[in-house]
Amino acid sequence: MTITAKMVRELRERTGAGMMDCKKALGATDGDFESAVDHLRKTGLKSAEKKAGRSTGEGRVFAVVSDTGHLGSMVGVACETDFVARTPDFEGFLDDLCAHVAAENPGDAAAALGQTWQGSDDTVEDAVKRTIGKLGENIQVADVCRMENSNGLISSYIHHNQKVGVMVSVTTDVERERADEALRTLCMHIAATRPAVLDRADMDANTVEREKDIYRAEIEGKPAEIQEKILEGKMARFYGESVLREQAWVMDDSKTVQQALEAELGGACTIEAFVRFEIGS
Predict the structure, then answer these.
(1) Cβ contacts of 167 within 8 Å, gap of 6 or more
(2) Pairing relation of β-strands 248-249 and 164-171?
(3) CA-CA distances (angstroms) from residue 39 to 29, 30, 31, 32, 242?
(4) pTM across the whole model
(5) Residue 184 reports pLDDT greater than 90
(6) What are the pLDDT digits (tens) for 109-168?
(7) What is the CB neighbour count within 10 angstroms for residue 265?
(8) For residue 23, what pLDDT is reported?
(9) What is the mean pLDDT of residues 175-199?
């Protein structure tokens, strides 16, 4: 059967595969359109399996916040080269994946991969493998998150290298237009300072004890009556570096993050959650 340019074009529009791959698939299936679709899916899976072990130090973090400001999603997707990360196909996948996360609310990247993709019989993992076959590189969904706050606002920030992204949820009664700058600065603060947790209570108990053990070894030999005070001071500095609410505000280190946010948005504001994604870290 003669494979026409129209047949190739229609198969490309359906699958997103390259022109030569579509032509080969149609040739291998004697021009049967649906069989050619299946052929491309199978070859794409084989291609993905071959590339699965290759390192993925490049990629992009992408975020979308709804027009209301109450819902946001953010994804981190890794690939092998910055060239592929800048392609329309890769960027289109980021956009589609963000929309999926906003709609389906997977708990994490692993859960997302098993979810149904865009109402089809495929999964997100299938979509990733097709993208691998199309772009010729190993691609991994590294991180996903979804935040919703009906009593406040979601805000996000993507660093200029597009490999670091932050999303926050803050409860506030301040209107979005007035709060935008403060929330964006909060996101930038998190991108720069890398806080470990939101509150002291969120800190892993083993991490706290390990820090205390290190500090106790440092002050061993000091008079017993001042050891506890020294330990308290060292732990306060540790929390001040690791706990978001207690960190020194990047724009004014005489204030903590919580104090600075209250000054901008009022005492009723509360940071509910934050995430920081980084590709290639």
Answers:
(1) 63, 72, 74, 145, 147, 154, 155, 156, 187, 274, 275
(2) unpaired
(3) 8, 12, 11, 10, 51
(4) 0.80
(5) yes
(6) 999 999 999 988 899 999 998 898 888 889 999 999 999 999 999 999 999 999 999 999
(7) 22
(8) 83
(9) 96
d(CA 47, CA 158): 31
Residues in contact with 3: Cβ distance below 8 Å, sequence separation at least 6, in sequence order: 23, 26, 27, 31
Please state at what angle helix 19-28 crosses helix 33-51, rounded to 10 degrees.
120
pLDDT per residue as tens digits for the range 12-25: 777 666 677 788 88
Task: Tell me the C-alpha distance between 19 and 24, whole Å.
Answer: 9
Question: What separation in angstroms does the CA of 146 have from each of 71, 85, 253?
Answer: 8, 22, 30
Q: pLDDT tier at 46 (50, 70, 90 boundaries)?
A: very low
CB-CB neighbours of 120 under 10 Å? 9
Q: Is 159 left (phi over 0), alpha (psi -120 to 50) or beta?
A: beta
Q: From CA 67, how far away is CA 154, in angstroms rounded?
A: 10
**Quick one: the chain helix, strand, coil %, rounded to 5?**
50, 20, 25
209, two tokens: 């004890």
3-state secondary structure of 273: strand
pLDDT at 15: 67
